[in-house]
Amino acid sequence: MSWGFLRDLLSGVNKYSTGIGRIWVAVVFIFRLLVYVAAAENIWKYEYDEFECNIRQPGCENVCFDHFFPVSHIRLWALQLIMVSTPSLVVVFHVAYRENREKHHNQKLYTSPGKIDGGLLCTYLISLILKTGFEIVFLVLFYKLYNGFQVPRLVKCDIRPCPNTVDCYISKPTEKMIFLCFLVATSCLCIVLNLGELSYLIFKYSIKCYLKRYIKKRQ
């Protein structure tokens, strides 16, 4: 697939984000997308060809690989990146809707179409909740599928058609473990950033509403 579309999407979202949101975009683009494309994808590129078992029983190696790697790490990361970035597209659509509405009425309806307030604030908050939810779901999915965030050097397999318990070896386990920890850490950092931005916007909006009510009472 072409990652250029995802890059353009993140660049578009960056224009309508808060300061914390811009940090999130930078983390996703530099520490996740670029690392994925430049390094991680190549490390897992030949994971099946380099998976070896100490037996030549037909079908045994295939079954063992499918058991220990039910879903490819690299494809799951790609899906995670797409799902985490998709909610931001809703914010871009909402801003585009505001701009088209102003053109249709031929008058200024908003202070700024990209300003986070009113309906756009709700859309932005929903996108943050969805992004956080997707991050957590994929972390749990990784943990359940691979029995933790680790890459063992040796795995033992006794699934048919293997005649007995055989030893299977995973290629470059240390290198894979380093990138796995790095990508999990950046995913956790994105969760923290999303929660921080969510708390900031809710707090800011609450203070704004409180001040409006206070001013009305004084008047």
From TrEMBL:
Keywords per UniProt: Cell junction, Cell membrane, Gap junction, Membrane, Transmembrane, Transmembrane helix
Residue spans crossing the bilayer: 21-39, 77-97, 118-143, 177-203
Main location: other
Domain called Connexin cysteine-rich: residue spans: 134-201
Superkingdom field: Eukaryota
Subcellular location: Cell junction, Gap junction; Cell membrane
UniProt topology in membrane: Multi-pass membrane protein
Listed GO biological process terms: cell-cell signaling
GO cellular component labels: connexin complex
SMART domains with a match to the protein in the record: CNX, Connexin_CCC
GO molecular function list: gap junction channel activity
Domain Connexin N-terminal: 42-75
Quaternary data: A connexon is composed of a hexamer of connexins.
Function: One gap junction consists of a cluster of closely packed pairs of transmembrane channels, the connexons, through which materials of low MW diffuse from one cell to a neighboring cell.
Family: Belongs to the connexin family.
Protein name, UniProt field: Gap junction protein
Organism of origin: Ardeotis kori
Gene: Gjb7
